[in-house]
Amino acid sequence: MTEHLTVVDHPLIQHKLTLMREKETSTAVFRQCLREISALLAYEITRNLAMTTKRIETPLCEMDAPVLDGKKLALVSILRAGNGLLDGMLDLVPSARVGFVGLYRDEETLTPVEYYFKVPDALEDRLVIAVDPMLATGNSSAAAIDKLKEAGAKNIRFMCLLAAPEGVARMKEAHPDVPIVTAALDSHLNELGYIVPGLGDAGDRMFGTK
Ligand code: URA
């Protein structure tokens, strides 16, 4: 991918996203829309995967048919809300390997601290797609990508549902080599760090917590 930020402005995505933004939308509908949008975003973020050919026999003749080249993709969820994007992506790429990065913010130093890290092997040979629905300040996403690079990842893309300009700028500064794919670029962050207009707390809305 060449663009640093791709906003996937597709009618189906935008319609489902509106349902997700509405505050009265149920947990079940929120989850279902997230699953469907994440599959559509996965379609876009995997558009230019490396291909090769394989000799096959159709009922009529032999042919060199296109197949994906290289090692299986690694999808990495940034906990906990990233998990909401996994199911839809795995619907589309069922053989992908899956990893998890858990970070919390130390309230004294305000720096991200890792509490969980488990990723597929041979990260350096895979396309790694890190996922988190909300790119808000960008601090935790940038820190998660630092960890993935430390673990060997060289080819990383980032997929989210909503991005704030502040988060995009932070990622561009920290990781200019990591393209971002999102369903929408919203207006700004409020004083509490929420994306506006946004959809509220994505984790709470997808898991039905408060
Ligand atoms: N995380 C969320 O879940 N929502 C926001 O608006 C910002 C960060």
From TrEMBL:
InterPro entries: PRTase-like (IPR029057), PRTase_dom (IPR000836), Upp_B (IPR034332), UPRT (IPR005765), UPRTase/APRTase (IPR050054). It comes from the Bacteria. Binds 1 Mg(2+) ion per subunit. The magnesium is bound as Mg-PRPP. Signal peptide: none annotated. Pathway: Pyrimidine metabolism; UMP biosynthesis via salvage pathway; UMP from uracil: step 1/1. One of its GO terms (cellular component) is cytoplasm. 5-phospho-alpha-D-ribose 1-diphosphate binds at residues 80, 105, 132-140, 201. It catalyses: UMP + diphosphate = 5-phospho-alpha-D-ribose 1-diphosphate + uracil. Its EC number is 2.4.2.9. Uracil binds at residues 195, 200-202. The keyword DNA-binding does not apply. Pfam families: UPRTase (PF14681). One of its GO terms (molecular function) is GTP binding. Residues 7-209 form the Phosphoribosyltransferase domain. GO terms for biological process: UMP salvage; uracil salvage. SUPFAM superfamilies: PRTase-like. Keywords: Allosteric enzyme, Glycosyltransferase, GTP-binding, Magnesium, Nucleotide-binding, Transferase. Its cofactor is Mg(2+). Allosterically activated by GTP. Belongs to the UPRTase family. Catalyzes the conversion of uracil and 5-phospho-alpha-D-ribose 1-diphosphate (PRPP) to UMP and diphosphate. This is Uracil phosphoribosyltransferase.
